[in-house]
Design a protein that fits this description.
Distance between the termini: 65 Å
Number of strands: 0
Structural class: mainly alpha
Radius of gyration: 28 Å
Shape: flat
Largest sheet: none
Length: about 180
């Protein structure tokens, strides 16, 4: 055993390990690996239930998981309202409930701005389909939401002025011929 100068006599140090190759250490290691793998699978299943709407895994309280899922969706709605304040303005009081419905079945992917854009697209699709509870947008809301999405997904605006357009075309040509 290694003994440190600051440790009491006979006390093992942090770098003391069981003898390599002992039957006990390999059995314990394989048991630990199996336990870690089970834990990782349980964590992945719980995370999926919390953010993707999958069934609650066995061994977890469904009521608590639903409550936490709702809290996470509400937090996503708050973040979305901060990065895209136009959405609550356009949708009014319907923003938060519709976003929470959306968030409970659509996991966040790509950050808050992409989440806001995906939500807006989903709202427009829902507004087009009949009988959907999220299809309750007014004509003005649909127009404003469509414009908002197009502003963020359309082509980059053309440079103004003839000289700037020529310079942009030359740069584009140079990058292609590169």
């Amino acid at each position: 055993m290694n003994v440190s100068a600051s440790a009491p006599a006979g006390a093992p140090t942090a770098n003391t390990a069981p003898a390599a190759g002992s039957a006990h250490s390999s059995a314990a290691a394989s048991g630990t690996d199996a336990a870690r793998q089970r834990l990782a699978l349980a964590q992945a299943a719980l995370l999926s239930a919390l953010v993707a709407g999958t069934p609650v895994p066995q061994g977890f309280d469904p009521a608590r998981v639903r409550l936490q899922t709702r809290a996470l969706a509400d937090k996503r709605a708050s973040v979305t309202a901060k990065v895209a304040p136009e959405l609550p303005r356009i949708l009014g009081d319907g923003f938060r409930p519709s976003f929470i419905r959306y968030a409970q079945v659509n996991p966040s992917a790509g950050g808050a701005r992409r989440d806001a854009l995906s939500f807006a697209r989903a709202r427009l699709r829902a507004a087009e389909s009949s009988g959907d509870p999220a299809g309750d947008l007014t004509r003005q809301q649909r127009c404003e939401l469509t414009a908002w999405v197009r502003e963020r997904t359309g082509p980059a605006p053309r440079p103004r002025g003839r000289l700037r357009r020529l310079a942009a075309a030359a740069r584009a040509r140079a990058s292609v011929l590169g």
